[in-house]
Amino acid sequence: MQAAGGVSMAKTLLKIQRYFRRKPVRFFSLILLYLTAGSLVFLHAGFIGESGPGGRRRRDNAVASGNPNSLSDARGLGVIRRGFKDRSGRRYGPPWMKKTGEERQEAARRGGDYATNWNRALKGRNAKEVDDGRAKYIGCYIDDTKRRALRGASFYDYKKMTVFRCQDNCAERGYMYAGLEFGAECYCGHKIQAPNASESECNMDCKGEKSNLCGGANRLSIYRLELSQESARRYGSAIFKGCFRRPANVSLALPFSAVIQNMSVDKCVDMCTEKEKSLAVLSGDRCHCGYPSPLFSLHEPENEDVCVHRCQGEEFENCGNDEYFVVYQTQVQDKRCMDRHFLSVRAKHLVALASFPGAGNTWTRHLIELATGFYTGSYYFDGSLYNKGFKGERDNWRSGRTICIKTHESGRKEIEAYDSSILVIRNPYKALMAEFNRKYGGHIGFASQAHWRGKEWPEFVKNYAPWWASHTVDWLTYGKNVHVVHFEDLKKDLFSKLKEMVQFLGLKVSEDRLLCVEGQKEGNFKRSGLRKLEYDPYTPEMRANIDKQIIIVDAALRKRTMSGIPQEYMPR
């Protein structure tokens, strides 16, 4: 029987061999399908093993055992999923919030990845959500292709234009008004330079949402944007800087000038842009171009009324006069502070740039890099920051090649690893909201209404508010040489506060470089001022808890003979 079975098997194999010899393409196709199926099964098993309870337990056990081989095996294909995460698996958060593998799995089951939740939340949003407290509809206006009603930036989308999209784009550029036309065109501006039209003439549906109107034929549906106070005032591509007294030596302070017939803001800005100067300065019919300097620092603005003098070429604009100049910042980049490099000699002392998450650490790093010309490092690794120009992000935090090191860590052991520190403190009410937005919307995104009104926000405040206080107290207690910077003070008086930080870092101060920083201060991680909450997210219980933390930090500052918490933080 066995011999007969062997003969039968041999005959079958011989037939298969002859079949594929006659048609080799089919043979290779079968092999390819087999390999593809095997690869898919392998990948599926890898991801399930990494994300499932068994995979997490294996990784947790590997970490606990300290076995590097088992750790690398446990990570497996998880590297693909993690992408650019914090270096060495570090996560910053309140010390009491360290989760077990099972807890992390449950959190993932309930909340999922924040980016996924954010995208899901955006799907159901419409323009009406941002009309309350964020943008106010003011009417239908006539538009002329030769003389636009709104003369700032513009863009078009003949498939997906929505009211919110237009508002958000104009808000991000600092404009006061957003207007929609033909259902697909968006115009931004600081002034409406056209008369009203009948509301019935703004009758075209938005291409991206049929429930809202987006103007009409040569008619604009215009909204006034409720921007945050710090949002820049713009005119077209230029940023309005204010009204300033004539400098003592105009030719030295502003080396290039020319008389322009029928002067307008556009003409002066265009001329200075062509000359590659960052400032366009109007004084009647004369346009001056230059850079901020100690001779013309823009630190002492005058009342704008003294600059009221209509431009000859544009009746709605002010062009200043011989004694008081109107100043705009052009799109030309001031390159005096843009060069950055690593330290040529490795630093022997480590300087921390410490802060609670959401307190403005990334922005402060940006300012320090521009002011000093040296890269800053980080205790973590964030690929999005590295791609935006923070090249020290990839260096080991102990490399000694960076001027200071970003950290959100707290605790005696972590703090005593540094020889000195700059501690950035921000109003906890602002810091908590900023970190919540980052956590659920990314560096410049926003948490969705579902997150704010759901259980995520109360749980976040409950856990993070005490950490805001304990983080600051730890650095004040264990830090060897601490220089405190209040975020709000840095925004109000950037020049002097940044100068103090540069001196603390032991570097020579360049005033020209600091003035350059003032013109480039925003960086790449600033949220739009448009999407602000229309209600106070803090309950009385939350405020009572946060106010207690503020008093704790105030006492800790005074204990080190420092000025206490800014008055605006204090409970009322």
Automatic annotation (TrEMBL):
UniProt xrefs under InterPro entries: P-loop_NTPase, Sialate-O-sulfotransferase, Sulfotransferase_dom, WSC_carb-bd
Region (Disordered): 52-74, 90-110
Domain of life assignment: Eukaryota
Domain WSC: 134-226, 237-331
Entry keyword Repeat: yes
Keyword entries, A-Z: Membrane, Repeat, Transmembrane, Transmembrane helix
PROSITE patterns associated with the record: WSC
Pfam family, one: WSC
Gene3D superfamilies, sorted: P-loop containing nucleotide triphosphate hydrolases (3.40.50.300)
TM region positions: 27-49
Molecular function, one GO term: sulfotransferase activity
Protein's name according to its UniProt entry: WSC domain-containing protein
Organism per entry: Takifugu bimaculatus
Source lineage: Eukaryota, Metazoa, Chordata, Craniata, Vertebrata
